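Q: Structure tokens for this one, please.
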Amino acid sequence: MLNIEQANQVVLGRMMGARPILRTVARAADVIPAMGERMLLHAGPPITWERASGPLRGAIVGACIFEGWAADASAAQALVTAGEVTLAPCHHHAAVGPMAGVTSPSMKVYVVENVTHGNKAFSNLNEGYGKVLRYGAYSDDVLARLRWMNDTMAPLLADALALSEEGLDIRALLAESLHMGDEGHNRNKAGSILYTTRLAPLIARAAPDAETAAAVLKFLGDNALSVLNPVMAACKAMADAGHGVEGSTIMTTMARNGTDLGIRISGLGDRWFTGPAGQPDGLYFPGFTAADANRDIGDSTITETAGIGAFAMAAAPAIVTFISGTPQDAMNATLEMYEITAAEHTAFTIPALGFRGTPTGVDIRKVVELGITPRINTGIAHREAGVGQVGAGLTRPPLSVFEDALLAYAERYLEG
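A: Here is the predicted structure, written as tokens:
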């Protein structure tokens, strides 16, 4: 007999019991499962070049130039439209990427291992704010920064992590950062400081010279999003630990590609349920308005899937200065998410709520019954390729994807 609650408890136990450890930094094609040498991974559910948004197209073009497959944008586009480059979702390869999420074979990626259950997850390196590849920019300065990160910073990070006894415990780092004003998605100031502080002695020991150590530490220290990518990989490892449990109604993937938003449910295998990605509502950088904004994009909603991000906004009232709203709005966001989740996280707690665990485990039954969809904190990309980030804000997925998933669940488990 089907026992939905029991299945969901298995999922939640695995997600919250997962212990993701940052092990190393390595070449994507060497560590990401089934990644081909002419493959580009991207954020969100599957999509073709023809339907891809401007920022995703820009990131694809930039990655082709970065790899040396094409000399310029027109040559890169010709390669993709001719079918000489394979596009695949990061989520199909145990990976995640912020915004466009484009990861190419020779790019270095974080390798995170869930030591509780043995699964691994991967994410590329964070470039910082503004005009960057993940927002669709691919100018010479963007590519030069990527090459420095790949050729200088990444090998040093790998050497530094090799000197650590057990790697870096990202779950513990996240738990501490939530007590310091972060929410783990759009606000990672405390987490990035903790991340840099814990790596600094190892970097100093591993660096070939003081100048290289200083440059890498400055880059990490100046970027308030440095920790976001390993956090995303950690959340992917946690969510994947709970995926594939027969009979469960818990969401284990939520991701956007700039055109579509897709979710996957633990008890429904790897099937995507998709609808239109939302139009973010937020604050814009000087000179930009909502008319410049692309639809929501990125795999970073793996944070909300794992119980942080917008679900933990009560821990980070200062985030409203970046995404809009008031401190009370941040509190209300977390309180609302308790209505559609099945548990309170055992490792992630919120001081302002009496150290109550963050709302964790979106249950599609509750979403459909209450008509409340998950909240999402997000950056905002310009709708045209090559421009970059123009702001940050809030959005939600369409209710229809949860209705479609619940209908599919009923057809599989309950009919007949």
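A few notes: The CA atoms of residues 28 and 294 lie 28 Å apart. The first strand starts at residue 20 and ends at 27.
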